[in-house]
Amino acid sequence: MTPIKILCSCALLASGASAIASETDPLEIRFCPATEIRTFPLESQRSVQSLVVQNVAVIYRGATKVQLTGIDFELQRDGAVIDTRSIPATDLTRIAAGGQALQKSGMLKLLAFQFCGASLIDEHTTLAGPDLAQNQAILITQQPFAYKGNRDALLFRAHAVVDGHSVAVSKTLPIRSGTSKTKFRFPLVGTWFAAVGPTLHTAHRWALPEEFAYDIAKLGAGNSSHRGDGRRFEDYYAYGAPVLAAADGAVVAAANDQSEDLDMLRRPDESDAAYGARVQERQGTLLTKGTRGIAGNYVVLDHGNGEFSLYAHLQPGSIRVKAGERVLVGTTLAKLGSSGNSTEPHLHFQVCDAPDPLACAGIPVEFLNVKLPYADYQRPLQSGDVLEAN
Question: In a 3-state reduction of DSSP, which class is residue 95?
Answer without folding.
Answer: helix
